[in-house]
């Protein structure tokens, strides 16, 4: 699954804009509870990662149960990713300023409450609202967890081991979520894919109170509230405009659609202009204007746009067209998760030898081929010949992108900006996933409606498959554009990568 963890290398300042207020390693003895604290933090990270893949498997049943339309079904994912990505940088600053332990606990308990609300939701509106709340609390929880790791493990070798455990949890958690989501949806209810977070979060919070020490940053503690409002409102307007265009009888030329898209353009341009002169910007523009770093963020944004939609449409294809059970759907995605984990280990060894650019370009080319392979699927395709090769190509291609791009995003960055530069990767991926999913769902819905109108005798399954093909072609286009951007902008050499670059992934 797409990575849902922040990508901060050992030793870097976690998401936020200020350095942690900690004494040098030689001045204090290591916290004897640090490994137990790691277990608690890892469990919290597992919950956040699980929430992406576990809910994906349940979307068809949730949509049928609550009567969610084709145009609106993407909000089950988009509401979460948009809130998560849009508030992530602010969440890092909040953790630094009010206390990382306090923010961690607020994030845990808030995530539990939002999950319970979503699991009990009687209609789509409350479900979407609960998913947005989950994303907002995840934006507090994720950077606080990474910050706590950085200040808890002060010895470089121990810190590297801690981040290794954290990364393994992030990678393996997606695969666990696929199976757990299938089991809960098939044998209990889709509602339990959200409800399962509640006991996990409460238990983790109880142990965190006694095992984790408080820490916070020193210095100026101002928040860029206008920047948050402009960026979040702009992104929501953009996604909502895409969604309105997908509704039956609305389309791209409808005044409501045009109004939301126009408002999005004004708000996002306003955000950039404001950040240029803000004294304490949410996103310092110097971080993204470097060609290597900016290229890395654009690559992650476009990869998120392509991959998130692939998972949604394949989930519906497995369950609605091929008749897979939710559990069978979970197992059908496992080759992708396994390929990413295996591929990342191989790429981490190759990166110091060949440098980032060849790996990124080759990985994106392989991912484009994998996405186009999915256009072979039909109403009765065989998984082994029509889906499995695409999953393998996409997974190894993405491993070749994620690991080196996580390093090129930190090339030439100062320690003061390291946390923001790292957090921007996850922000770019989540925002890209939100926008791509909304846009491709619009193209999918239009393609299905057009095929049903042009050839009603072919039946709905043929129309749905045609819609999947259209979505996969556009997703391949996003990945191809990412390839062009990587080839044009990313020029970092292997000797320019930050120390322990492979751990940055």
UniProtKB/TrEMBL annotation:
UniProt subcellular location: Cell membrane
Entries under InterPro entries matching the protein: EmrB-like, MFS, MFS_dom, MFS_trans_sf, Sugar_transporter_CS
Transmembrane segments: 35-59, 71-91, 103-122, 128-151, 163-184, 190-213, 225-243, 255-274, 295-318, 330-351, 358-377, 392-413, 425-447, 467-490
Organism: Blastococcus goldschmidtiae
Source superkingdom: Bacteria
Pfam families: MFS_1 (PF07690)
Entries under Gene3D superfamilies matching the protein: MFS general substrate transporter like domains, Multidrug resistance protein D
Name of the protein in question: MFS transporter
Membrane topology (UniProt): Multi-pass membrane protein
Ranges of compositional bias, category Low complexity: 7-20
Region: Disordered, residue numbers: 1-30
Keywords: Cell membrane, Membrane, Transmembrane, Transmembrane helix, Transport
Main location: membrane
CDD domains (alphabetical): MFS_MMR_MDR_like (cd17321)
Annotated Major facilitator superfamily (MFS) profile domain residues: 37-494
